Amino acid sequence: MITSKRRGEWLELTPGKKALSGENRNEAAEAWLLQELGMPPKLLHELKHNQGIKIAGDRLRLALFPSVPLGISPRYILLDILYEDDFCLVVHKPAGMPVHPDGNERHDGIITLDHAVAAYYESEGQEIAVRHIHRLDVDTSGPVLYAKNRYAELKLNSMMERKAIDRAYVAIVHGVITQDEEVLQYPIGKDRHHKQRRRVSPTGQHAVTHMKVSERLEEATLVRLKLETGRTHQIRVHLSHIGHPLFGDTMYGGRREGIRRQALHGERLTFQHPFTGELLTIEAPWPEDMTELYEARKKEE
Q1: Domain assignment of residue 42, given as a range
Q2: pLDDT beyond 90 at 87
């Protein structure tokens, strides 16, 4: 069994004498890191270049936690931390907050989730670059995953590319959906008449959303959804296309009845821990506006 312990910027591992034996202990250690630990080759190269691998007896030390700049100015706001360890941070993003600056930002006082995470790291004395792994729309609430070091960043980015990070959403849509389940497979492209809006288009990008009806409400339906692809506004576009836009989603045909933003919430995030391999399921409680809309639309018994 491999044991590990953090010591400052170093992670100390005890892979066993056999893993570090042979004529060339450095080569043996590198082979173990790649084959047994599953270290990304790119990171192994970076660590070797920066003298970030040390062998002492039966112990192997890796410089996985160096002090690095935040990369974005800290702006304080109280955060709801759903999960944290030395490798990962999961934060509940409230509706109305962008995940990151849009590139046109100046000193306008806008607080994004990245700004807030930077302030959290700073307040905790953690010298860590702010690295979000995925995004949510500005008006969608739910969990956002951050990598706290280079090792986690490379592993989690690879999981995203392989679609191995499962993101589950809950939404309240207009109208009563009759079918219990449906796979929505409609390509999504840009709308040439509106800069931000997307639309279903034969020439658009492949997009797949798995939808399941959870409860039929009063002239509304509670649905749960999983993304097979991650196109911009994918859930909103797909549900609007089948005639059931989200409550509050005026861009795609919804009405602001009982909620002032799109009724879409990231309910659950499931992924393998980048270092231990443990399957983690992080749940984010419904925000108040979603709960109020649901209660208002529930059918009386």
Answers
A1: 3-62
A2: yes
Query: Can you give the CATH number for the domain in which 172 is found?
Result: 3.30.2350.10
Q: What amino acid is encoded at 52 in this protein?
A: G
Q: Measure CA 235 to chain center.
A: 16
The catalytically annotated residue of 85, 108, 114, 137 is 137
The model's pLDDT over 231-287, given as tens digits with 9 standing for 90+, comes to 999 999 999 999 999 999 999 999 999 999 999 999 999 999 999 999 999 999 999
CB 187 within 8 A of CB 193: no
Degrees, nearest 5: CA angle 233-274-93: 35
- Domain end residue (candidates: 62, 77, 105): 62
Residues 26-81: pLDDT tens digits? 888 888 899 988 999 999 999 999 999 998 888 899 999 999 999 999 999 999 99
Rounded Cα gap, residues 187 and 208, in angstroms = 8
Residue 271 forms part of a structural domain? no
SS3 193: coil
Q: What's the number of domains the chain is made of?
A: 2
Burial of 79 (0-12, 13-18, 19+ CB in 10 A): middle
Predicted local distance difference test score (pLDDT) of residue 195: 83
Is 148 part of a structural domain of the chain? no
Q: Is residue 38 part of a domain?
A: yes
Q: Assess if residue 75 is contained within a domain.
A: no
Known catalytic membership, residue 80: no
The DSSP line for 76-120 is: ----EEEEE-SSEEEEEEPTT--SS--S---SS-PPPHHHHHHHH
